[in-house]
Design goal:
This protein is α+β, with helices and mostly antiparallel strands. Helices cover about 25% and strands about 40% of the residues. It has a six-stranded antiparallel beta barrel with strand order 12-13-14-17-18-19. It has a five-stranded antiparallel sheet with strand order 5-4-7-11-10, with no helix packed on it. β15 and β16 form a beta hairpin. The chain is elongated. The relative contact order is 0.11.
């Protein structure tokens, strides 16, 4: 019985976990999602689709529509088990904004064999050899470098990175980083003392060429170490342009509460009163990915259900509907408790006297209160 209970709990937990993701099927041939439907908004997604023949890595990039190449989110599916999977499934934990368009790029990579890797290694090391050879020249009694060692190492990394632009390593893609031994080698070349020579002797002086060759060998070993892994080459790219997301439904809620209204402050005699109120609340944002303050705050308006009276017994009501009208901001403190702060439009009636007629005066005063939103909402829009 205990084992059955544990199994049920685990099943429900797993169901809840997977229920948090929304499935999105990408049709490679038609180049759209879910039979042309808009992408789900404000939810973690799971992209799925067919794996073309020979493809062992699929990279997905989400970009803002019409905004260049700056990625908002990147992820990749990798065929680690080499079982020639016919379909893929990949979580995209980046909730998309509602009523927004995105560009989505799919890069499909295929594995490359050892001979192709050797050819790639030779191409990359040929570029690094040429860069190092061109970076040092004899200058009088010493060696002149094209730039500071740190900068030269950074430029070498850029050369390698650019040479591998269409290749991906089957792991988290990271920037190429060379070891500190290369920078130290460049510094030692700068410190060489090359005696001034003339004629054939200068051309055959081996000090600088040997030092350059040694640096080339060190860089070559590091490049070989980088490429001595499982790499894949870009086969083709599919680009989904200006694809929309689902619209977010607008809503409002009915809320009721109890508030305290400041009425007046004359001759050190503070006057205030309290009453229940009811009204409507309109959220500043109903987006689940908006900042917390916007998600928890609403603009509220409504009326106090009872009129007020000041310390002198004067009735204080409101204009138009005969009850005090309020406009303010409410903020969720707890699941069902909201703090309200705003202003109340009041109308005070001063009773007639033997010498003065009845007098009405309209003015605005602040109020605070606590309210609870009734579990009723009305969706707006589609």
């Amino acid at each position: 019985m205990k084992a059955l209970a544990i199994t049920i709990v685990l099943f429900l937990s797993i169901g809840h976990l997977f229920g948090q993701f929304t499935s999105v099927n990408y049709d490679l041939e038609k180049n759209y999602f879910n039979e042309g439907q808009a992408l789900p908004s404000e939810k973690p997604l799971v992209f799925s689709g067919e794996v073309p023949a020979g493809v062992d890595l699929i990279a997905i990039r989400i970009l803002p529509a019409k905004n260049g190449k700056s990625s908002l989110y990147e992820t990749s599916w990798i065929d680690f088990d080499n079982e020639k999977n016919r379909t893929y499934s990949l979580s995209v934990n980046y909730p998309l904004r509602a009523s927004t368009q995105y560009d989505i790029q799919f890069d499909f990579y295929t594995s490359i064999d050892q001979s192709a890797m050797r050819a790639l290694t030779e191409r990359v090391t040929a570029q690094t050899d040429a860069y190092i050879a061109a970076s040092f020249k004899s200058d009088g009694n010493g060696v002149k470098a094209a730039d500071k060692p740190t900068k030269m190492v950074a430029e070498l990394e850029e050369i390698i990175q650019e040479a591998l632009r269409e290749y991906r390593f089957k792991s988290d893609q990271s920037a190429i980083q060379l070891s500190g031994a290369i920078e130290q080698q460049f510094k030692s070349i700068e410190d060489l003392e090359v005696a001034p020579m003339k004629g054939p002797e200068a051309e055959t002086n081996p000090v600088l060429p040997n030092a350059i060759k040694e640096a080339q060998v060190i860089v070559r070993k590091e490049v070989e170490g980088i490429l001595n892994k499982s790499w894949s080459k870009l086969a083709f790219t599919r680009y989904v342009d200006d694809y929309p997301t689902t619209e977010k439904k607008g809503s409002f809620a009915v809320n009721v509460g109890y508030g305290l209204v400041y009425l007046d402050d004359k001759n050190d005699d503070i006057s205030y009163d309290n009453a229940p109120y009811a009204g409507l609340s309109f959220p500043l944002s109903n987006s689940t990915i908006a900042p917390r303050f916007l998600r928890n705050a609403s603009v509220s308006m409504g009326i106090f259900l009872d009129n007020f009276s000041d310390n002198k017994g004067n009735e204080i009501s409101g204009l138009i509907v005969g009850r005090p009208f309020f406009l303010g901001l409410d903020y969720k403190l707890f699941e069902f408790v909201h703090f309200n702060l705003g202003a109340t439009l009041l109308e005070k009636t001063t009773a007639a006297t033997a010498t003065e007629p009845e007098f009405k005066d309209a003015y605005i005063r602040p109020f605070v209160g606590l309210s609870a939103k009734i579990d009723l909402s009305v969706g707006l829009g589609k």
